[in-house]
Each structure stands twice: as C-alpha cells, then as structure tokens.
Design the sequence.
C-alpha cells in the first residue's frame, strides 16, 4: 500500500451541538460536535471503537471506547469544561502534561499542576487521513505555540492515528524549541484507564521494594483519610500486592509510584491491565524517549482511575524537587524532541501473547 496523508484544517465554526458527519473513508470516519459546555470535539471511529478528542483544548483524548467498553476513567465531569485549571475539568482518557514544568508544584514552585499543556488553547487543528506501513488511518493533529518573552518559545505538535481494524492507536508529540537558547523541559503522558475489579497488572518492570519507589509525601491538593498513610507504607513494603486490583484495596485518594521499565529488542516497553475475561488495556512506550514511568491509581467514591503507566521524562513531584534529582531535561536551541506511544485494547489472544513476551523480558533482566 502506498504511503500518503491528506490534511483537512478545522476551525471552531464547524462545530455545533448537533453531531454531524465530517469525513469518511471506508471503515474510518470523523464527526464533529460541541459539548453542551461549548467545548469542540471530534469523534474518530473505526470498526472496533471510537476516540472523542478535543481539538482546541489540549488535544486531549476525552474518551476511548473499544469492544463496547469505555476504557476511560470515571470522574465527576460528564463533559469537559472550557478555560479551567487542571482539576477544574479533569476526566479525560489522555492528557499531554508539561512542558516547561510538570507534576504537583511544591512550596518553591510557581507552575500549575502538570503544567501548561493539558488544557492548552490550540490555534490550529487538523484531521488527517492516510496510509503508512501499519495500514489505513484517520487522525487528529494540531499546533500550540507557548511563548513568554525572555523565557519560553516552543511549538508543540501532537498527532493521534486510529487505524482500520485495530483497537490500538498511536499518539505522538513533537516539540520544537524556537529560541536560540536551551529550553528546560518536563513531560508526562497521562493515560487514565478505568480500573476493573480483580484486573491484573502485567508489565515489563521489576516489582520489588528495591526497584519500586512509592510516594509517601502527600501533595497539598490531596486530603488524607484515616488509614491512608498505613496503606501506602504497606504497599512500599510489598509493592507486588497492588498487582491485582482487589476490591478491598483502598486506593483512596490515590497511590503513586515510580517503576523502572525494561524494553524489548525493538526498544518498546509494555504494560497491561488484564481483565477477568482475558482481554486487556494496553500501553507501549519507548524508554529512550520517556525514561521514567509513574503509576497512579485513584479509587475514591466519586471517581475511578488507573494510570497503568504514565511514561515521563521526570517524576511527578514538581519542578524544584525533580530538578534537584537531575530529572529536568534540556532541549537544545532550535532542537526537536519527540515521544511515541501505542495505546488501546487487546483481545484475549493478544493479551496472552503479550503476557508471554513480558515474562521473557523480565526473565532476561
């Protein structure tokens, strides 16, 4: 099949509360609409499911559904809200976090929670339809320029591709430093699955007290219920005990840990939540691009979220702490940086094969 790609620019005037078809090519389709809050949305579809994306607000993937199942976390927000800080419209399936800073700000930090990218106002968005070595795809991309005189000037260009006949989709982000001086940066791919009771977490990272770092310091935006600190201490002593999401485990308000991933011969690292029916949620990333992985699980009464693997360039503790650890990276003048991920759902057979592959990776460590 010949490689090609066609781009179609989007603009806010196309979007109305009534959803309407916009583009179709065989099993691949895109429709456009507005949420009742006024936030513009694009629905990308293939034979197996759909992604709802926010083209002008962070290029978030607001929801992902495959195999008649909503993969997206449960939250208190049925719809995205415009012009809100991070926690004022939180519930999307995928958010780009960073780029000038990321994580929970500490007492000496001035950045917002997870930086400027999650709800960034994109000046340009476009649909793509084309074909590459993986087959025919439909997708959404855009451009966001973040500029502050004498400080920052960079261009972020994300792209999501949904392929025909696949419940997996690609997410890429390219960032270009437009200044003649270096740019410090931090980034996290915040992927929020819906946890399933008795789901098994299978991933190519060792899970021992020596290899897993559990966060014990509680950020100021978190309210701590009775017994929470004891729960965190127990997970730190026996991190493998969280690998089955038993209903009795109190991930309330959240559990945060850092894992050291191993990659396969092609440079990819793999993570799954295997459901009781044998199917799985899946994330693959490249540790050479995103050398840290955060896991975030939050299961209080009003929302339910599994950050199975949040590939990142740094930990989640904010600029000052991560800088002191040597985790804030530098992009050269006029330099480019890119991250690539594959995300979605696996059939029972695909999950079984992947579990065997992960076991081999761990055995060779």
Sequence:
């Amino acid at each position: 099949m010949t490689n090609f790609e066609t781009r179609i620019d989007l603009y806010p005037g196309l979007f109305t509360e009534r959803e309407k078809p916009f583009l179709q090519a065989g099993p691949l389709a895109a429709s456009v609409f507005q949420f009742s809050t006024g936030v513009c949305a694009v629905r990308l579809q293939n034979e197996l499911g759909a992604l709802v994306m926010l083209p002008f607000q962070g290029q978030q993937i607001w929801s992902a559904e495959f195999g008649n199942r909503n993969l997206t976390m449960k939250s208190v927000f049925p719809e995205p809200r415009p012009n809100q800080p991070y926690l004022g419209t939180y519930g999307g399936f995928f958010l780009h976090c960073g780029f000038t800073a990321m994580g929970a700000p500490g007492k000496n930090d001035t950045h917002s929670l997870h930086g400027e990218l999650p709800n960034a106002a994109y000046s340009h968005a476009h649909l793509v339809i084309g074909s590459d070595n993986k087959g025919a795809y439909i997708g959404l991309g855009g451009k966001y320029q973040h500029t502050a005189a004498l400080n920052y000037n960079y261009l972020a260009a994300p792209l999501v591709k949904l392929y025909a006949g696949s419940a997996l989709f690609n997410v890429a982000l390219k960032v270009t430093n437009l200044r003649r001086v270096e740019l410090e940066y931090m980034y996290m791919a915040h992927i929020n699955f819906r946890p399933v009771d008795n789901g098994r977490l299978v991933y190519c990272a060792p899970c021992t007290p020596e290899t897993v770092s559990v966060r014990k310091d509680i950020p100021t935006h978190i309210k701590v219920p009775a017994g929470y600190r004891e729960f965190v201490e127990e997970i730190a002593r026996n991190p493998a005990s969280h690998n089955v999401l038993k209903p009795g485990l109190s991930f309330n308000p959240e559990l945060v840990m850092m894992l050291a991933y191993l990659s396969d011969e092609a440079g990819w690292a793999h993570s799954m939540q295997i459901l009781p029916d044998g199917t799985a949620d899946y994330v693959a990333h490249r540790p050479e691009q995103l050398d840290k992985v955060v896991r975030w699980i939050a299961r209080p009464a009003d929302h339910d979220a599994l950050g199975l693997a949040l590939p990142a360039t740094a930990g989640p503790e904010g600029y000052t702490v991560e800088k002191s650890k040597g985790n804030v990276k530098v992009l050269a003048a006029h330099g480019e940086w890119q991250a690539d991920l594959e995300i979605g759902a696996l059939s029972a057979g695909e999950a079984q094969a992947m579990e065997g592959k992960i076991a081999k990776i761990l055995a060779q460590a």
